[in-house]
Amino acid sequence: MSRKKAGKAKSNPSASPKSRESAKRSGGAGSSGDAQPDGAVRPSRPSLSSSGEFYDLAFKVMLVGDSGVGKTCVLVRFKDGAFLAGSFISTVGIDFRNKVLNIDGAKVKLQIWDTAGQERFRSVTHAYYRDAHALLLLYDVTNKSSFDNMQAWLTEIHEYAQQNVVLMLLGNKADAAHERVVKREEGERLAKEYGVPFMETSAKSGMNVELAFTAIAKELKHRTMKDEGEQKFQLQEFVKKETRSTGCCGF
Questions:
Q1: How many Å apart are CA 251 and CA 127, to the nearest integer?
Q2: pLDDT tens digits for range 140-159
Q3: Which of 111, 112, 121 is nearest to 91 (CA)?
Q4: Phi, psi for 55 (deg, rounded to 5)
Q5: What's the pLDDT tens digit per position in 110-136?
Q6: Nearest-CA neighbor of 215 among 192, 197, 227, 194?
Q7: Which residues are within 8 A (CB) of 32 and not within 5 positions of it... i.e. 6 or more apart?
Q8: Which of 14, 88, 105, 162 is most buried (CB neighbours < 10 A)?
């Protein structure tokens, strides 16, 4: 099998199932190597990402939530280590970026899709749920309605996403202590109700952003490459342990 380069990220306001297939051919999860039963890509030999890094596994991760909760800022913080200060134009349709992580000796490529939160783009988002291996649900701790809408987002996910998709709830903008209207305990209760891991993040300070994606990558990697006799990876326990060590905001 020849090595292939992953395609460059492109924004596509009019995305459809057909364009989703095109994205796969240009380097999305499923573009090269052997597809596993759970949809993960495991190349017969290491593949080359668009950044020039080799990887062993590739997974599609989606960021979902209301408009303005900071999905794009979280993605930019994770990918580039930067913060998008000031006002900026909301995401239109779908956009994605790639990053390769070293997870327990394996190179794991995350193809991270940033989705528009506006209602008019919701049908576009639905089409992408089906191929996602993991979904990060974001709300803004300074915006109560974004938190209240989490149940509606979770309902959509259960309707459109894969049954075994990895979920994580993130309360973003945790740095804005004086503007907070959603208590951390409220996020913990909602996460417990739906049986998903939870942590608070800050795209501005970088708090827990790397941890959130690393935890997801570890869960996906262990599902795909579990060695015989290896203890099952416990995502929620990992999140609790790591957030306790940093002293903030995990469940």
A1: 30
A2: 999 999 999 999 999 999 99
A3: 121
A4: -145, 155
A5: 999 998 755 555 666 777 888 999 999
A6: 197
A7: 1, 4, 41, 43, 47
A8: 162
